[in-house]
Design brief:
The complex is a heterodimer.
Chain A (H helix, E strand, L loop, with lengths): L9 H13 L2 H4 L15 H16 L16 H11 L27 H5 L3 E5 L6 E2 L7 E5 L11 E11 L12 E9 L15 E10 L4 E6 L1 H8 L8 E7 L11 E2 L11 H4 L2 E7 L16
Antiparallel strand pairs in A: 1-10, 2-3, 3-8, 4-7, 4-9, 4-10, 5-6, 5-8
Chain B lengths: L23 E3 L2 E3 L9 E3 L2 E3 L2 E3 L14 H12 L8 E14 L5 E16 L1
Antiparallel strand pairs in B: 1-5, 2-4, 3-6, 6-7
The chains are: A alpha+beta, B mainly beta.
Chain lengths: 301, 123
């Protein structure tokens, strides 16, 4: 309408719309709770539409039509990357509010990752499998293991870069500046942690990245985990996850354990956790087309 | 012929301008909600893909962005209609980025090549 041609010609479009209206939620739900395309009656038009959709999905590199579940969450970082990449720097979408930073101000837009994106045409984000294994720490320190299932990355996609993003919340109850320093260490777990019955056994890890931070600000921290992800994907090495350790410098105050958001926290519930939980982002290239070069603004069409 | 006097400039009725009929780019908005794909494509909701349509008449004007072969083919068509005219096709395309949820509920941002017609020509 409105002088624009649509993707499907008139009769097919009407048929698709009618089929969508006839969709009944209970039998149409997939195992993940997502919507399922209703099975239309067989016929030449439907065969044509099915073939049409199949060819389009193949063009997009998908084997079947995605049926996202209601639990699927689109991280704000991915939305920001899309906006930055497409040159669409408009204000935030009111339908998808971003979590507030301390003080009520919205978090600053992340810097566009020019270097990782310059060699990639695909960015994927992963949440961990909630196998939050508390690792044996030193008593003063807190360590967590995150296992990200990267098996959905296609074999023909070469990962050139990967980052682990952790959110840390501002802590106000620190009387002295010197007491607010933390060191965040990110390791690759080389061997899985031994079972508790095995007794005390040192965890074998490899340090990937580290950073000294002060807990006077809320922000995301990005850690380079490219070597580990390259080993898991290209090198076919077993993926035992990443370990994150928050080391509190001596004489840190009682607020030290709340700074880095590595787990759900009660009683806040799951609302902000969906957007603030750790995020693994991979930058890869499937050998087709050019990289994600950032566009510097685009005139509105 | 050099022995003939030069012919006067064309004074006949002006040729009707075929504005809009020659090869050019036309609007074509692809709306993902029209095919029910807006449940897994997060952004954009749709995009201007454009398409090429129009005539490639003899002689091919410069703005029709033709190739030497298209000029020859059009020339041959002018004397032998069994040879088709050159076709109005995209000569320059650009990419778009799409943010979507894949089959495994993972969020993907991907750059797709040659999705938008930037220029049309007779080829």
């Amino acid at each position: 309408g409105g002088g624009h041609a649509s993707l499907i010609p008139g009769p097919g479009k009407k048929r698709t719309a009618a089929a969508a209206e006839e969709e009944t939620p209970p039998p149409g739900r997939g195992p993940g709770g997502g919507r399922r395309t209703p099975s239309p009656p067989p016929g030449p038009a439907q065969d044509l539409l099915r073939g049409f959709e199949a060819s389009l999905l193949h063009m997009f590199g998908l084997r079947r039509r995605p049926q996202p579940s209601k639990a699927a969450v689109v991280p704000a970082y991915m939305r920001d990357l899309y906006r930055l990449q497409s040159g669409d720097d408009d204000d935030d979408d009111p339908r998808h509010p971003r979590p507030d930073e301390a003080g009520g101000r919205p978090p600053a837009r992340p810097d566009y990752p020019d270097r990782p994106a310059s060699r990639a045409n695909t960015v994927r984000s992963f949440h961990h499998e909630e196998h939050l294994d508390s690792l044996p720490g030193t008593g003063e320190n807190v360590a967590f293991r995150f296992v990200f299932n990267l098996s959905t990355i296609p074999e023909d996609e070469v990962i050139s870069s990967a980052e682990l993003r952790l959110y840390r919340e501002r802590v106000d109850q620190s009387p002295e500046w010197e007491q607010g320093f933390h060191r965040i260490n990110v390791y690759e777990v080389v061997r899985p942690p031994p079972p508790p019955s095995a007794g005390p056994c040192p965890l074998i890890t490899r340090l990937l990245d580290t950073r000294l931070v002060h807990h006077n600000v809320s922000r995301w921290e990005s850690f380079d985990v490219s070597p580990a992800v390259a080993r898991w994907t290209r090198g076919r090495r077993p993926n035992h996850g990443l370990a994150v350790e928050a080391t509190h410098l001596p004489r840190a105050g009682p607020a030290r354990a709340r700074h880095v958001r590595v787990s759900r926290s009660l009683p806040h519930g799951d609302g902000d956790w969906a957007q603030l939980r750790p995020l693994l982002v991979t930058f890869g290239h499937d050998g087709r087309g050019h990289a994600l070069t950032r566009r510097a603004g685009r005139p509105k069409r | 012929s050099p022995k003939r006097p030069p012919s006067p400039p064309h004074r006949g009725p002006p040729r009707p301008r075929k504005k809009g009929k020659s090869c050019r780019r036309h609007a074509l908005y692809v709306d993902f909600s029209d095919v029910g794909w807006n449940d897994w494509i997060v952004a954009p909701p749709g995009y201007q893909a454009f398409y090429c349509h129009g005539d490639c008449p003899f002689p091919l004007a410069d703005h029709l962005n033709s190739t030497n072969h298209a000029i020859v083919q059009t020339l041959v068509n002018s004397v032998n209609a069994s040879i088709p005219r050159a076709c109005c096709v995209p000569t320059e395309l650009s990419a778009i980025s799409m943010l979507y949820l894949d089959e495994y509920d993972k969020v993907v941002l991907k750059n797709y090549q040659e999705m938008v017609v930037e220029g049309c020509g007779c080829r």
